[in-house]
Design goal:
The complex is a heterodimer. By secondary structure, chain A is an alpha/beta fold. Chain A contains eleven helices and ten strands. In chain A, the strands form two sheets. In chain A, strands 6-7-8-3-9-10 form a six-stranded mixed beta sheet, with helices on both faces. A four-stranded antiparallel beta sheet of chain A has the order 2-1-4-5, covered by helices on one side. In chain A, strand 9 and strand 10 form a beta hairpin. The longest helix of chain A has 17 residues. Chain B is mainly alpha-helical. The chains are: A alpha/beta, B mainly alpha.
Chain lengths: ~300, ~230
């Protein structure tokens, strides 16, 4: 027999043989049909909601003369969870704090670039950081309830922001959204400090929700919590994104994989360089087949 | 390097699959020789391998599951484990089919044969062996350029399949061999086509392992590519 009969001589021939192969498969249906894959991964800005919640262009963040984050472009999709991952010190937390003008509260720290929320450039001269922080709420790594009752922790921010509706309803709704209501409904007048760490963190989420922001930023909200509390916070995410746009910094990659729709990987190429957004794509893509080697090394735990 | 233990476990798993592949190939080799040399004893040696291959396949599958549970693999690690499970399945199936053919060779030993049909079967068996070997080699070396050619080479098997079936349906004038043998020949043709297909699929799985793309999608892109660009 001919030892090498069907090795294609040229691309045209190969093309023909592929087509005849296709016919052969139609004739011989034993081979299961293979699901057609998207040819190319879609750009994150074309996610299925398609609505941009926040748009970041050319963002740089500094601590005095030290540039911590450089040149970040990111379209944050509305009503989606965007996770930010990356090694320690790569600028994730700095970056997320630039999204509601919290970065500049540190002495000497400032940001440049364009961050728009709806039609509003949050770094425009006439934009009021207090208003921005009301529209873009934040939950921190360590739960930090006010030294007040559970009820007042939730109601306080809304009241000082001029909330005129039914406060009882607001408190209940916010606590329910944060998956805390059932645990605290009989002790609303007790101090927030009497709660467990996981409950305190959910109280802080409820407090953030009560001011009805458009975007919620979370800086490692579950890193100090036990697995059950972590799970409860993760469980709230699906509900939260129905009403809010969520950006979450996490060191827990599996958490990012579980809860987010989009993932941004921050990376520092050489020590002393500022952090960059190294890759940003749908979470599915980032955890199955990322474009860049550094991303793959990081998500598979092969760093260094 | 971090995750050293995990990497070792993956390496072990991969070498287990390649070992299994080597064994299935040796069964396939004996089957082809038994056909070429009309030496049923060679085929007889392989009876019973199916049980062993299935047991090995189950072990590999279980190891894959444990690694997924314990290590939560993602990206290339996840693709590797997924591909290993798929390839293992192809190997075990091919082993089973090869054993079926060996059974047929033993059962029909001494039966009268149609020489043309026998020649067609032998050519098809050699082709199946070659494609299976090629698929496994592509997987071993992650050589995805060859996977594309392998997909095309599958045509050859389809052609031989039709030829052999034609000979079975239309025996030559001087008789078509013993009925028992003819009937088994039809099954053998079908099994050989399956073995070749498993080999081709192993090559296709390798494309997914390396690029994260399904072979069908990769082929489509190749077909649709702009020829003037190259």
């Amino acid at each position: 027999m001919n030892e090498d009969p069907s090795r294609p001589e040229n691309p045209e021939e190969n093309r023909e043989s592929m087509e005849s192969q296709k016919k052969a498969r139609e004739r011989n249906p034993i081979t299961r049909p293979v699901r057609e894959n998207k040819g190319q991964s879609p750009k994150p800005s074309q996610g299925d909601s398609g609505v941009v919640g926040m748009s970041v262009k050319g963002l740089n963040a500094y601590y005095g003369s030290f540039k911590a984050v450089t040149d970040v472009d990111m379209e944050i999709q509305a009503n989606k969870v965007t996770a930010l991952i990356g090694p320690s010190g790569c600028g994730k937390s700095t970056y997320i704090r630039c999204l509601n003008r919290m970065h500049e509260v540190i002495s000497g720290a400032y940001a440049e670039g364009k961050v728009t929320l709806g039609d509003q450039d949050i770094y425009a001269k006439d934009s009021d950081p207090v208003v921005i922080r009301r529209r873009v709420g934040m939950v921190f790594q360590k739960p930090n309830p006010f030294s007040k009752s559970i009820y007042d922790n939730v109601a306080w921010g809304a009241k000082i922001n001029g909330f005129r509706g039914n406060v009882d309803e607001l408190v209940e709704r916010s606590l329910r959204q944060a998956a805390l209501w059932d645990e605290v409904k009989d002790r609303l007048k007790e101090s927030g400090f009497g709660l467990s760490g996981g409950q305190q963190q959910r109280l802080c989420i409820a407090r953030t929700l009560a001011v009805e922001p458009e975007v919620i930023l979370m800086d490692e909200p579950a890193s100090a919590l036990d697995p059950v509390s972590t799970q409860k916070i993760e469980d709230t995410m699906d509900d939260l994104k129905k009403s809010y746009t969520v950006v979450i910094v996490t060191h827990n990659m599996q958490q990012a994989a579980r809860i987010s729709d989009f993932t941004g990987f921050f990376y520092i190429e050489n020590q002393g360089d500022p952090g960059r957004l190294w890759e940003f794509d749908e979470t599915e893509k980032m955890f199955s087949n990322p474009e860049r080697k550094e991303t793959e090394d990081y998500v598979t735990g092969r760093f260094g | 390097m971090p995750r050293e233990t995990f990497q070792q476990e993956l390496d072990t798993l991969l070498s287990d699959v390649l070992d299994l592949g080597g064994e299935v190939e040796s069964t396939l080799e004996n089957m082809v020789r038994a056909m070429e040399e009309r030496e049923a004893a060679l085929a007889e040696k392989e009876l019973g391998v199916d049980m062993r291959y299935k047991a090995r396949g189950a072990e590999i599958d279980e190891e894959c599951m444990i690694l997924q549970a314990r290590q939560a693999p993602v990206a290339r690690d996840l693709r590797l484990i997924y591909t290993i499970q798929a390839v293992t399945n192809h190997l075990v199936r091919s082993g089973t089919l090869t054993e079926h053919i060996c059974h047929a060779l033993v059962d029909t030993d001494g039966c009268e044969r149609d020489v043309d049909l026998e020649a067609a079967l032998i050519e098809m068996a050699r082709t199946a062996r070659r494609l299976f070997h090629e698929g496994l080699d592509i997987f071993r070396n992650r050589d995805i350029d060859r996977a594309r050619d392998l997909q095309a080479a599958d045509d050859k098997v389809d052609l031989l399949y039709s030829e052999a079936m034609n000979l079975i349906a239309n025996p030559s004038e001087d008789g078509g061999g013993a009925p028992e043998w003819r009937m088994r020949a039809a099954l053998v043709v079908h099994y050989l086509e399956r073995i070749a297909d498993h080999g081709v699929d192993i090559g296709g799985r390798t494309v997914f392992l390396v690029t994260g793309e399904r072979i069908a999608s990769a082929m489509q892109q190749y077909i649709n590519r702009d020829l003037h660009e190259e």
